[in-house]
Amino acid sequence: MEEIAATEHSFVKVPYEQLCKSIRCGQALLEAEIQSISSSLKEVSRTQGTPDELASRFDGLTTQLIKLREKLQILNDAENAAVEVSDKRIKHLKEGIRSSPNNDAEHEEWKRQRLDRIICDHLLRVGHYDTAEQLAKFAGIEDFTNLNIFGTSRIVESALKNHDCTLALKWCEENSARLTKLKSTLEFKLRLQEYVELVRQGKRGDAIAYAGKHFKKQAHRHLQDIQVAMSLLVFARQPLHDKHKEYFDENRWETLVQQFRRNNFALHSLSGQSVLEVTLQAGLSSLKNSACLEPDEKNADCPVCSTNMNALAQPLPFAHHTNSRLVCHMSGAIMDEDNPPMMLPNGFVYSRDALVDMSKARGGVVTCPRSHKTYAFSDVVRVYIM
Fold first, then answer.
1. 3-class SS of residue 348
2. pTM for this one?
3. Residues 172 and 187 sit within 8 Å (Cβ to Cβ)
4. pLDDT digits (tens, 9 = 90+) for 256-298
5. Which of 64, 68, 119, 164 could, after both became Cys, cross-link 159 (CB 3.0–4.6 A)?
6. DSSP code string of 129-189
7. DSSP strand E in the chain: where?
C-alpha cells in the first residue's frame, strides 16, 4: 500500500488535471459567449429596423447559440472521458491493494499490467512513441497510459527538432496562465531562438522589429539575456565571446525540446522521472556498496556489478546497512556461523562451503579466482570477526 501511494500519484492526478482544464475552458468560453450574446441583445433592443432586419439579427444570435452548444458538448465529452479514465485507474489500483500475493493468478496479472504501463510511460517520456502505442494496444492498457498528452508533445517536439517554434509558441499561448504560475521561461526562450535565427540569416531589420515586438514585456525578467542577444547584431559574423557563440549552437534546439518536456510534465502533474527510473534507482541504491565500484571485487550475481547497471548506479548513494554482511566473492553466498569465512595464504577470503566444494572437485586443492594461485585445502584458515 505504501509503495503504491509513493509511486502512483501521477497515475491518478493526470486525468484529474485534464478534467480541471476542461472545466476551466468551459467556464471561460461560457462567460465570453454570454457576454457577447448579452451585448448583441442590448444592441437589438435599442435598434429600430424592419421586421426582416430584426429577424436576421435573431437568426445570427441563434446560430451563435448553436455553435456555443456544439463547443460545450465537445468540452462535456472531454470531461466525461476524463472522469471515466480516472474511475478506471482508481479501480485498477484498488484491485492491486485488495489482491493477495497468495492468489498467484490474480496478483500476477495485476503486476503484469502494472509493469506494462510503467514501461509504456517510460517509452513515452524518452520519445519512443510508436513503440509505446503498440505496447499499450497489445497489453490493453490504453486507459492506463497518457498517449493523448504525449501525442501533442510528439508533434511539438518534432517541429522544434525541425527548427520551427510555431507550434511550441501556440502551446505556450494556450497554457499561458498555468505556465505563468510555474514561472516558466519557455516562451521567452522560444522567442529568443526565433530572434537568433533572424540574426543568423542576416535579417537584422527583421530581428530588430521582432525584438521590439516580443522582448519589451519580458525585459523585467530577462533584461541581461536581452542585452546579450541585442549585441549579436554587432558580433553575429565573428562572435568573440563564449556567450555569443552559445546563441548560435545547434544544441540549443535540443535544450528547447527538453525544457518543453519538463514544462509539459509539470503542466499535467507528471513527475520529472518515470516510475521505472525511480524504482530502478531505488533498487540499485539498496544494493550498492563500495565493492561494486572496484573491478576486482565485482560479483557476477550482483545487479549493480553488471556493466549496464553499474553505469546507472554510479551517481547513486551507497546502501545504508545497520549490520554489515559478508558475501563470498566466489559463490555469492552470505558468510555466517553456518558458512564461515575462510582465508587463503594470499590473504583473500571466501566462504567455507565454496572452498570445500572446490577442494572436492580438484582433489584437495583450491585455486584463488582473483590471484589464480593454487593451495592445499589444509592451508586454509578460518577468519573470526569481532
1. coil
2. 0.69
3. yes
4. 999 999 999 888 888 888 888 888 888 888 888 877 877 777 7
5. 164
6. HHHHHHHHHHHT-GGGS-HHHHHHHHHHHHHHHTT--HHHHHHHHHTHHHHHHTT--HHHH
7. 326-327, 334-335, 341-343, 349-351, 365-367, 374-376, 381-382
